[in-house]
Amino acid sequence: MTYEQIRQLDDSYIAHTYGRANVCIAKGKNATCWDLDGKEYIDFSSGIGVNALGFCDEQWVQAVSTQAATMQHISNLYYTLPGPQAAQLLCEKTGYQKVFFGNSGAEANEGAIKTARKYSFDQYGAESGRYEIVSLVNSFHGRTMATLTATGQAVFHNYFFPFVQGFSYAAANDMEDVKAKITDKTCAVMIEFVQGEGGVIPLDADFVQQLWQYCKERDILLIADEVQTGIGRTGEILASQHFGIHPDITTVAKALGGGLPIGAVLFGEKVEYVLGAGMHGTTFGANPVACAGAKVVLERMDRAFLDEVKAKGDYLRAKIEKMPGVQSVTGMGMMLGIQPAVSDSQTIVAKCIEKGLIPLTAKAKVRLLPPLTITYEEMDKGLAILEEVLSQL
Ligand SMILES: Cc1ncc(COP(=O)(O)O)c(C=O)c1O
Questions:
Q1: pTM of the entire structure?
Q2: How far is Cα 301 from Cα 65, in angstroms, rounded to an integer?
Q3: Residue ranges around ligand 1 (CB below 6 Å)
Q4: 138, 228, 240, 251: which to mutate for ligand 1, most atoms within 8 A of CB?
Q5: Which one is the CATH code of 71-300: 3.90.215.10, 3.40.640.10, 3.30.70.270, 3.40.50.300?
Q6: What tens digit of pLDDT does each residue of 113-123 get?
């Protein structure tokens, strides 16, 4: 099929919820991919932070294809091996006690919200009305009704009302505003350590410490949405490790499956038994193929791998900061946001794609989430394209 035929097929049968670039990617290897005509692209997006090990990592392909050919799905009504193996690795690497597997970031956040409300119900009773959740202005937590409500950006709050009750928003890095929004009905505060969709903006370390203490003293659960920052992206398995705190609940997704749909809620000590049988579930949760992929991703992320992520992130940042037309670079590890001095992120990304580089946007910024396994040669190729585009603005 030609590109034009595929585009028409897509247009005819797929709901028009995405604005796509005029490119059809056909195959890839590590951080390089090719379109239908064989044009090469350097991938600085990893499918929005998903392909942590790049395209078609050999060990990952072997593990998922072997699992697919052995037993692809049976449901959570039976025991299977890949789920608990992936959960064990997750717990060992993050210090959490239990894992609930779902299929996406939003679904993981739904699980976290339900857990926080159930925890307060168990501890304080329904009559306490302790179900409110404070999230941060400019956050992004997903597209389902509750996670859309938790998302602290008015632009997402059009059309779909009425929203879920019990959410309020405090300004990031403003402890006084958090305190003003917390009431005796607050059961949890929900944060991203680096606001990803909001513009790749890290939280201040002081704010995080104060928030963590404040919540702990009041038995308000801290929920960390690490859907974008988690699983190695910042140079640690979880971004919370940079901040020296251990939230009661953390959610991860994107990178966890290395390209397969999977999300997880990680439960700390306070909440590991909060959800009992029949209270939460999902048909595809702990899917053996997705978990076999997650196991490879997690096994790969030892200290040396994570140090490489930090080194590559530093390398990218140092090179980009020196480029023309760059006002600032924000982010952590291999999650970077470039504020251009002129032009806009959409135009810059479109020009990069034309020249064979795939970055992302995050509001006004050009956002980079390259595969964590990207080589220096691939980074240099991508940086050369980025510099060419920026210098022509
Ligand atoms: C921080 C954060 N939370 C939640 C989500 C939603 O994840 P998903 O699209 O897998 O539902 C995203 C997606 O970009 C995200 O960046």
A1: 0.98
A2: 21
A3: 104-106, 109, 140-142, 192, 196-197, 225, 227-228, 253
A4: 228
A5: 3.40.640.10
A6: 999 999 999 99
